[in-house]
Amino acid sequence: MVVTTIYVIRHAFRVAFTLNSATGEYHTNSPSPTNIPSDPPLAAYGVQQSHELAIALPKLDPPVDYLYSSPYYRCLQTLEPAVEKLRLGIKVRADNGIGEWYGLASFDHPSPATPAILKSLFPSSFDDSYQASLVPPRSGETIAQLHDRVAIALAHIIASVDAESKNKDTSILICTHAATLIAVGRTLTGNMPDDPNTDDFIAPTAGITKFVRKQNSNTNINKPSDNEDAKIADSIDWRNGKGIAGGWTCVLNGNCDHLTGGAERS
Predict the structure, then answer these.
(1) What is the model's pLDDT at position 234?
(2) Across-strand partners of 138?
(3) Distance (Å, rounded) from C-alpha 141 to C-alpha 232?
(4) Cα–Cα distances in Å, from 224 out to 132, 155, 252?
(5) Measured distance CA(179)–CA(142) in Å, rounded
(6) Which pLDDT does position 198 carry in this prediction?
(7) Residue 249: how many CB atoms within 10 A of its CB?
(8) What sign for the dihedral angle of Cα 50, 55, 56, 57?
(9) What is the per-residue pLDDT across 43-87, written as a single tens digit (0 to 9) for each?
(10) Counting beta carbons within 10 angstroms of the beta carbon of residue 97, is it exposed (0 to 12), middle (13 to 18) or buried (19 or more)?
(11) Mean pLDDT of 203-208
(12) By three-state DSSP, how is residue 152 classified?
């Protein structure tokens, strides 16, 4: 049995932060629980969205079996109210491979908090034993590199859960960021537009996107070597409609019917 369904959500509405592109310094007026200025918490409105999302997620069909998240605080905070309601008996696996996208820069972008710190902030829901699929370069990525990085991470996640799902078909829920969510949609379906600014997959805060697997097949995972953590040296052949692990069909795109405020920041 294998993964048949992947749900992808963007984190709920967050507190704003700014970047001084000349110095590479990030700033926010709301202190981050991780003490990383580019890792802000949810705004009050986002907390409300996270609770509305927690009501919607247990109603998904098929139900969620595994939880994956970007390691940034706002994503884990978005999932926190849903963890108890889903009653999965499993914890959230944070993977840098589905983390935030930073463009290429002459300075190093901040890294997310360490698993130890995240475990202290989310003691009952965070899986600190999980090993991330890869670590993006701190100097940033091109759009093409973002997509290939996401493809590698998804292939790793899908193959891992396929191996764990011995007796039943399973579903995965991923909480991530806007640009990463769009890359997830393109790599799963194998449809990369000529213009990366094309509005194909929408990413409203706390919206739900659903993908259904086309066929049950394995994907070879080409990961960077251990001494190339900061470089995505290899990529998976997902373009031209091939997709990851046999390809996926998007059947729900940024749905916000569960949110009283509707779509935000889409």
Answers:
(1) 52
(2) none
(3) 9
(4) 13, 13, 32
(5) 12
(6) 94
(7) 12
(8) positive
(9) 999 999 999 999 999 999 999 999 999 999 999 999 999 998 888
(10) buried
(11) 98
(12) helix
Query: What is the pLDDT of the chain when averaged over all its residues?
Result: 90
* pLDDT recorded at residue 87: 80
Q: Dihedral of the CA atoms 89, 68, 232, 108 (nearest 10)?
A: -110
Residue type at 68 in one-letter notation: Y
Tell me the one-letter amino acid at 114. Answer: T
Give the residue from 213, 208, 127 showing the smallest Cα distance to 169: 213
Q: Which residues contact 87 (CB under 8 A, 6 or more apart)?
A: 58
Asked if residue 222 lies in contact with residue 157, where contact means CB atoms within 8 angstroms, the answer is no
238 pLDDT band, cuts 50/70/90, is very high
Cα 266 to its chain centre, rounded Å, is 16
Find the distance separating the first CA and the last CA of the chain, reported in whole Å. 35
Return the closest-CA partner of residue 9 out of 108, 84, 81, 114.
Answer: 81
- From 130, 121, 54, 149, select the one nearest 92 (Cα to Cα): 130
Residue 109 DSSP one-character state = P
Residue 179, classed as helix, strand or coil, is helix
Structure tokens at 198: 């094309």
Q: 9 pairs with which residues across the strands? A: 175, 208
pLDDT confidence of 94, banded at 50, 70, 90? very high
Better-predicted residue by pLDDT, 236 or 213: 213
Q: Which tens digit of pLDDT belongs to each residue from 209-219?
A: 999 999 755 54
The structure tokens listed for 113 are 């908090």
Whether 50 and 14 have beta carbons less than 8 Å apart is answered as no
- pLDDT at position 235 is 57
d(CA 32, CA 266): 24
Secondary structure class of 3 (helix, strand, coil): strand
